[in-house]
Every structure is written in C-alpha cells, then in structure tokens.
Amino acid sequence: MTIESFLGRAIAAYDPPVRGDRITGERYHEKRWADAEWAHVWTKAWHIGGMAADLEDAGDFLTHNIGRESVVMLCQEDGSVKAFYNACKHRGYRLAWTEVGGSPFLTCGYHGWKYAPDGTLAHVQDPDDFPGGSPCGKVKLEEIPCTVWGGFVWFTMDRDAAPLKTWLGAAGEQLEQWQMGKMTRVLALSSDVPCNWKIIRDNFNESYHLPNLHPQIAGSIDDALEGTIFEMNPEGHNCMIMRGLKPSGRYPTSDILEMPLAQALEYWELDPKDFEGRASQARDAILAQKRKLGADKGYAHYATMGDSEIVDYHHYTLFPNITFTMWPDGFQLLRSEPHPTDPERCIFDHWFMAHEMPGSDVVMGPMGPTPFQHVEREKIEFGTKSLGDVADQDLSVAIGQQLGLHSRGFTGGILPNQEKRVQLFHEKLNDVCGIHD
Ligand code: FES
Ligand SMILES: [Fe+2]
Fold first, then answer.
1. Where is the Rieske domain (predicted)?
2. Cα-to-centroid distance, 141 and ligand 1 (Å)
C-alpha cells in the first residue's frame, strides 16, 4: 500500500513551494513583532472561546481573554450564541470575570448597568439623568462574529472575516469525520509558559524532534519519515499523519511487540501471540477488527471515519495557533496564545475531548485513564504540575530555545525538508505581518 492510497488524497496537491525566508531569533522576542502580530494575526483569525456544552440557557456565558482583549460569548433565547467585547459601554469596566457563568442579565460590577443576552442595555441607574434620555434599548455591546463548530464556540475580532468554514477550508471538511461536536472535554489544562507562542507552533509543525524528545512513543506510533504524510493547505493550515498501532519503522525493533500494542490486540479480540515478531502487521489486523466489531462494541463514530482515521494520528495545525491531534476516539487541542504584555511568554492550553468509551467511566487520554466527565479549564502555575508527559517534554526544550534564540551565535534556522511546515508557517507570518527582514 502506498502512502497516497492509504488516505486516497494526492500528496502533490498539498505541497506548495517555499521561498526560503530566513527565520532568525528576533521574531521570538521583539515587541515590534508582537505588535505586528496583534494588528495582523490575532485580531484577524478565528479563535476558540470555549465549549458549547457550557451554554445551555439564555444568558449563560463564556469568556475568553487573548492578549489584552477579552470576549464574552452569550447564549441567546433560541440557543444560538453571540460574542461581544467584554467591556461595559458606560466607562469600560470589564463585565464578565469568570470563564463560565450565567444569569438573565450581564451586570457590570461598577455602576450596575445590565445587559440582555443580545447585548442590549436593559437597565441603568437614574435613566432620566442622561442627555437625550435613557440609553436603555439604544446602547448595545460591541458585537463580533461568532459561530459554533466542532463542540467549540469560535469568535473573530475581524468583522470582515470569511466564515469559519471558509477559513478552515479542506481541514474543516476532513475534521467532520470525527464528530467532534459529540465529544466531551475531559481534560483542560492551561499555563503561562516562559517562551514565545511561535516556539510552541514550530514544535507542532514538525515531527523531526519525536525520536529524540519522545522516545516512549516508538512502540506504538510509527514516527519514521517514510511512513509520515505531510500536507500543507493554501489557507496556511496543515496536516501530518502518522500511522498508529505500529512500532516506529526507524529501528530494527519494528517487529517487536510491546505492551500498548499487545493490549490493543487483545481489546480487539486478537491474540497477541500471533503477532510476536511481526508487530508491524498489528495495525492492519486491528483496522479490520474495528470495522467488523466497532459498531457492536459501541464505537458508532467509526461509521463516519476513513480507515486511516480509525487507527492513525492525524495532527491538524490551523494557522496561526491551534493544533488538533486527532486520535481514533478523541482529540487533543494544543494551543499557544500571546501573553498580554510579554513577547517572551505565552498561554499554552492542552485539552482532550473524547467520545464515551463503551462500558467504561474513564477514557484513555494523554494523561492516561481519565474520568469521562466535562471539566472546566484548570490554570496551572508552570512547573508545579504536569501538563502531560509529551507536552512537558515539548515545553522543556521550548524554554531552552527561547534562551538560545537571543544568542548572536544563532543566525537563522537550517531546516531539513521534513520541517517545511515550519518554513511555510513563518513565510505566511512574514506576509501577513508585512515584515520581510
Ligand atoms: S463602567 Fe459599567 S456600569 Fe459603569
Ligand atoms: Fe513533541
């Protein structure tokens, strides 16, 4: 089976040329870059504001802070969602202070102005004391585009932005297979991390670091270059696909059966003994079993998914800052957002959304078995608690890279072909920001 045929997509169509712009250290710490990114990237892109599952009744809200901005997303009477800048029209006090909340009116903590869920001012103190009469019913919060997709509430600060689905392009269509909107968020960690947001992006835009930094995955994920697919879309999004349930083809041990793979074989009613010395064939055998037994075992979502999608790892990275790592039964959100004031820090989020596992009250996630229940975002002081084994490994080098990128000894990256997604990311950023030096 060729790589092309295992996905049925033509690789050449997803391999645009690069110019070879130099990627030097300044962009990772200079304020002029942070300012340009705010003007041209963050205020233009679509952002994930939170989970749609948190909005049930009119007046329920989510807030999301990005940079110095804050956005509140409010559930309407008809169940739709509207987003507004989270600032009172009276004298600018921030309105909502929790990430999740709800009441019939959004009430300002300063002078008590109240807003209806559609953003209309509904009550003020001393309404007759205003020149021109009461502002109620006339004043509205500043509304921005908002939509629900994939279980998330999305917003953009760009009133002229293309609709979310246009922005997602082919990636959005492919992602529909997983039925993300039917999943539950079971893990939601967030931390203020001492590195520029792009260092984390670069990390998720390449798999070159996997053998050295994440050797523990080699028993059940094939990180060999020959077996990995890299796709780059015109919108700036990209996808990397690695075969799962298959030991890394990088090593002579690629046919030695290890525990996670043996457990997967047993779960899918295959005898691990049959795969001793031929572990590389387990993936195709499990794929066949998943097709045969999936529906009866309760994995209804496999019906809408392709063969590769039910056994492999599809890593989607959306420009500028969102990675969805799709597993057969769930997916990770790996996101970096700018710090409000310091270009050498960012806000890192690691969430896991999952389908319910039949007959179990836990799901297997990036932190191991995890209770199947909706969780709110947990803010972690960096270094005091794990953000996930693999994420910890990635972040451990991010900090060292932030230091090295200040050195006069670093004069621009030297990238192998397989890091083309890193190159394309920076070239798109250069174009969007209008900085070419
Ligand atoms: S600033 Fe909000 S009521 Fe005054
Ligand atoms: Fe990594």
1. 46-155
2. 12
